[in-house]
Specification:
Structural class: alpha+beta
Largest sheet: 10 strands, mixed
Strand content: 35-45%
Radius of gyration: 22 Å
Distance between the termini: 84 Å
Shape: globular
Order of helices and strands: HEEEEEEEEHEEH
Helix content: 10-25%
Number of helices: 3
Length: 178
C-alpha cells in the first residue's frame, strides 16, 4: 500500500473512531430513554364493540406528554380515562397524558385506556397491531410499537369484555343524552 493511501486510511479510521466515541459520550449523559415497553389490545366481545388497549411507557430524561396513539389498521383510536363522578363510572376523552421524566405512564383497565373501533381483520389474523405513539418532544416524536391482540375474555376475568363502553357515559354532550 502506498504511503498516501495508508495516511488516508489511518485518518478515516481515526475520524470514524472519534465520531463513535462522541456519540457514546452523548448517550451516557442522557440516561433512560423514552420508550413503550409493553402492552396489548383486547378485542371487543362482539364485532360492534370497540377493542381496548393497555400499555406502559417509561419516561426519558425530560417530562413529555403523550398526545396521541395512531394506527393505519383501525378505523378510529381514542385515548380515554375511566373516572368516578357523582357516584357513577364515566369515561372521558383524554387529549394528552403526562409521562414524567424517568417515571412511567400506564394505561390499564379501570383507568386510562385506548378505545379502538373496527380493527382490520388482517391485523387480527396477524395477532398484532402496529401503533405509533406521538409525544410532545422533538417535533412530536413517534415511537412505533406492535401491540399483541388478544381475544375478548369472559366478564369474570375482569379484562376487555367486562368493560362495556356502550353503557358508560363518555362525558360531554353525549353523556347528557343517555
Amino acid at each position: 500500500m502506498k504511503p498516501f493511501a495508508r495516511r488516508t486510511l489511518l485518518a478515516t479510521t481515526l475520524a470514524a473512531a472519534a465520531l463513535t466515541l462522541t456519540g457514546c459520550g452523548e448517550n451516557l449523559g442522557k440516561g433512560q430513554q423514552l420508550n413503550v415497553v409493553s402492552g396489548h389490545i383486547v378485542l371487543g366481545a362482539t364485532p360492534d364493540r370497540p377493542a381496548v388497549g393497555y400499555f406502559r411507557i417509561e419516561g426519558g430524561p425530560r417530562d413529555v406528554e403523550l398526545v396521541g396513539v395512531t394506527t393505519d389498521f383501525a378505523q378510529r383510536v381514542e385515548m380515554h380515562e375511566t373516572v368516578q363522578e357523582d357516584g357513577m363510572t364515566v369515561m372521558k376523552p383524554l387529549l394528552r397524558a403526562p409521562v414524567p421524566a424517568k417515571g412511567e405512564l400506564v394505561f390499564r383497565q379501570g383507568g386510562k385506556h385506548l378505545m379502538l373501533w373496527h380493527i382490520n381483520p388482517a391485523a387480527v389474523r396477524a395477532g398484532k397491531l402496529p401503533m405509533a405513539f406521538v409525544f410532545t418532544n422533538n417535533n412530536n416524536e413517534r415511537i412505533l410499537f406492535d401491540l399483541p391482540i388478544r381475544e375478548a375474555t369472559s366478564a369474570a376475568s375482569g379484562e376487555g369484555a367486562a368493560m362495556d363502553h356502550g353503557a358508560m357515559g363518555h362525558g360531554g354532550a353525549d353523556a347528557d343524552k343517555k
